[in-house]
Specification:
The structure is a homodimer.
Chain A (H helix, E strand, L loop, with lengths): L10 E4 L9 H11 L3 E3 L2 H7 L1 H11 L2 E2 L2 E5 L6 H20 L5 E4 L10 H21 L4 E3 L16 H11 L3 E6 H4 L5 H10 L3 E6 L23 H10 L6 E3 L12 H14 L2
Chain lengths: ~280, ~280
């Protein structure tokens, strides 16, 4: 396993971690100031800044872009909504390409409004990614399917295990891979085997870290800083690296009542310290 | 699939549904008053009432006991704690037998204090159930492993899929089965197959219903009434019955800010109406 004890180059800041405090430009400056090697913007921050200007700022700061968050949200109640989602996903591919992102993260979407048909939603996800793939391949932009924790199955992502994501990749072919976020998959008894399977197919496009707090006060906005929860992050990183992953470790923490209330430079300093000691 | 449209005999009330309002004695009287056929007490309510007295009240009311909640909580940090957990589980088996319960529900437990070793916790669960089995078999009390939603993996149950529960049953042999609670398993892409597997081994000991609300405000205490959420309950009940289950449908709703604040007779009336129409 790679030694992170003196590293900051393999650390990447997902802008969600300080989304309440900083613009994208401030995030870029913050990464540069702290020697953090990568950044992963969310599209709302990117839109504020403008993709072209963001691309220049990121390049000038010497940062890698470990992913753009996010495309996806494929299932919809009507054909018109599905077409609109596809159009938006093509735009996301273009934005990702414009900033030189290593992949476009896909949060695939949950149940359409009023639906209880999760199997149908999963078919819509498969069809939606399939429809996006030509555009993504033409832009040479890998699509990273991120399985989300089952507690988000209804409203955010009906792909809830790495096995499902691997099965989708098998069905869809080149140009699509997976993102492994420890928060979403740490509980999965099949995780080690499915990480190995993903690695054997050379499809691990991202590795995201945070921690599961006990208790967890909010389903969405109470993620923990690495080391503050119960996830054995080094064990999972070991599996991911044994499977051939040599990319960055991206910190993505949604934390309304804790990290989003802190001085962002302190948040970044803590990310670095935890990256070196507990990831 | 059985017709519930005129039924109340196959409805069972888990006392958690009105735990804030009623004692066990009041729950028994309430079930009898509404013609509800079964009851599933929690042990704290049973202890208040006394098992012997509860057994008489339940028998006099003509109720079946679809389960006792709960045994389990096997993983522990020290051998002394593990022994204490085993002693308490033997007592739970005795209580379940005293009230004529159809099974003892096992919520198996999560990570021991300070541990990040979920694989180790899962081994402790297997060993704990194995250690309990002789006592349970002697009492002719089936143990029902209930997989809990992955959001409870850390602090309540590290058995999070029906596949895991089935694997445990395969390993442990006679005297152990599963409880299928739609709230915990509705998201699982392998659910249909694992329900069929459980049925083929004649090990489905219970079927629990409630609903997944969107949004869900609290990880533990914001379950919905059947029909108010996104779970396709009839589809899952169909799978369970196709697999040979002919037991009751047990309503278990933890709902701090809604159903626990309502007039309990209204809660029971709503359970009946939903049992007849959307389960």
């Amino acid at each position: 396993m790679r030694d992170f004890s003196g590293d900051t180059a393999l650390l990447s800041l997902n802008t969600a971690t300080v989304q309440a405090q900083w613009t994208l430009e401030q995030c870029i400056e913050g990464c540069a100031r702290h020697g953090i090697g990568g950044i992963a913007p969310w599209r709302d921050k990117l839109a504020e800044c403008g993709a072209k200007r963001a691309a220049r700022l990121i390049r000038d700061a010497g940062l890698r872009v470990t992913g753009l968050c996010r495309g996806g949200m494929f299932p919809a109640a009507t054909p018109a909504e599905r077409r609109a989602a596809l159009d938006d996903n093509r735009k996301a591919v273009d934005d990702a390409a414009a900033i030189g992102a290593e992949c476009l993260i896909l949060v695939v979407g949950g149940l359409p409004e009023g639906s209880k048909d999760i199997a149908g939603a999963r078919m819509q996800v498969r069809d939606g990614i399939a429809a996006l793939l030509d555009h993504a391949r033409a832009a040479a932009m890998p699509l990273a399917i991120e399985p989300l924790h089952p507690m988000y199955a209804a409203d955010r992502a009906c792909v809830n295990t790495l096995k499902q994501a691997n099965d989708l990749c098998d069905a869809l072919g080149d140009g699509v891979g997976v993102a492994v976020d420890v928060y979403h998959v740490w509980w999965d008894p099949d995780l080690e085997a499915e990480v190995a399977r993903a690695g054997a197919a050379d499809r691990i496009l991202g590795f995201h870290v945070s921690d599961w707090l006990v208790p967890t006060a909010d389903l969405l906005l109470d993620r923990g800083m690495m080391g503050d929860g119960v996830i054995d992050i080094p064990k999972i990183r070991g599996w991911v690296e044994d499977a051939g992953y040599d990319g960055a470790s991206e910190v993505e923490i949604f934390s309304k009542d804790n990290w989003w209330r802190r001085e962002p430079d302190d948040v970044l300093a803590t990310c670095i310290e935890r990256h070196r000691t507990v990831v």
